[in-house]
Amino acid sequence: MSENLNLVRSIYADWEHGDFTSVEWAHPDIELVWADGPEPGRWTGLADVSARWRDFASAWEHYHIEADEFRELGDERVLVLTRVGGKGKTSGLDLTQMGTAGANLFDLRDGKVMRYVSYYDRERALADLGLAPEAS
């Protein structure tokens, strides 16, 4: 198992329990991309990325991200097929019941995440990366 894969697995060890406080894994100039979903966008730098996460997380109770599968894509990329859970504080929307199948792509260099791309739609992530869709 590569160091990059170990790093991404350690990130998910926290995220699966709803703990998004650590940023030790992130490069100071990290780029966050939300490729799709209700609020696509791009943020750069640890301060902006952290602020975006705090804003997003404030809308949810018990928000967490679970890894279904980790895939190494070359030496410096890790794709994680994910599911999210949590309940909207205002709407009451339960993400777990929605069957949310997404993906996160990590670009890594020198032991740090340089770019993090989040997809709400797993099939779009696979298509964007030129990977075969999952078997039904």
How is this fold's topology laid out?
Layout: H1 3-15, E1 26-34, E2 41-44, H2 46-57, E3 60-72, E4 77-88, E5 101-109, E6 112-119, H3 122-128
Parallel strand pairs: 1-6
Antiparallel strand pairs: 1-2, 3-4, 4-5, 5-6
Short description:
Helix content is 24%, strand content 40%. The chain has 136 residues and is of the alpha+beta class. The chain has a 6-stranded mixed β-sheet.
Task: Give structural notes.
It is a single chain. The chain has 136 residues and is an alpha+beta fold. It is 24% helix and 40% strand. The protein has helices at 3-15, 46-57, 122-128; strands at residues 26-34, 41-44, 60-72, 77-88, 101-109, 112-119. A 6-stranded mixed beta sheet has the order 2-1-6-5-4-3. A hairpin with a 6-residue loop joins strand 1 and strand 2. It is globular.
Topology order in helix (H) and strand (E) letters: HEEHEEEEH
> Which oligomeric state applies?
single chain
Structural class comes to: alpha+beta
What is the 3D form?
A: globular
Give unreliable regions as ranges.
none
Largest sheet: 6 strands, mixed
Span of the ends, CA to CA = 28 Å
Please state the average pLDDT score.
Answer: 91
Helix coverage percent: 10-25%
Strand order of the largest sheet: 2-1-6-5-4-3
Beta strands, count = 6
Beta content? 35-45%
Count helical runs: 3
Radius of gyration: 14 Å
